[in-house]
Amino acid sequence: MRLTKKAAGLIAAATLFTVVAPAAAAAASPRGTCYGGRVCLYAGYDYNRGQVDLWRDFVSDDSNFADNNWLNWDFSNSWKSMDNDTSSIRNRIGCSATLWQHPGYTGAHSTFTHNSNDGYLANNAIGNDRASAIDIWCR
Asked: How far apart are CA 39 and CA 93, in angstroms?
């Protein structure tokens, strides 16, 4: 009888893990987080909280967002262009990152130091929905 109860406990634990694991993956989406070593951009204010979760992370420069699409909360391609569509940023790269208004690193720009967050880009020189490039630089 002990083996049966032990087996039942293992099956119950495995079932619970199966049910909990997918929810944990969704909760760990970039909506509320940005993993170390990355700069995360979000289509919505306040890192997409309460909005459609479109995001993208970077580990190096990108001179033109026109050839990038946002990712969905489940890491799938949204097929929606990132160009002129960024509303918030989290910087965890360990360096400063600059968002530029135009491709090729020109126009208005705002620089964000390591570990900085800004959930409302409208109050920066880059503005809301105007970013077209990112320059990540370390000293």
From this structure: 6
State pLDDT tens for residues 59-114. 999 999 999 999 998 889 999 999 999 999 999 999 999 999 999 999 999 999 99
Q: How many helices (H) and strands (E) does the chain have?
A: 1, 9
Predicted TM-score (pTM) of the model is: 0.77
Query: CA 94 to CA 74: how far, in whole Å?
Result: 26
The tokens describing 85, both together, are 């569509």
Q: Beta partners for 111?
A: 98
How far CA 93 is from CA of 58, 85, 113, 120, in Å, comes to 8, 21, 9, 20
101: three-class secondary structure by DSSP = strand
Give the amino acid at 101.
Q
Backbone dihedral angles phi then psi of residue 135, each to the nearest 5 degrees: -120, 115
Tell me the pairing of strands 77-81 and 88-91.
Answer: unpaired
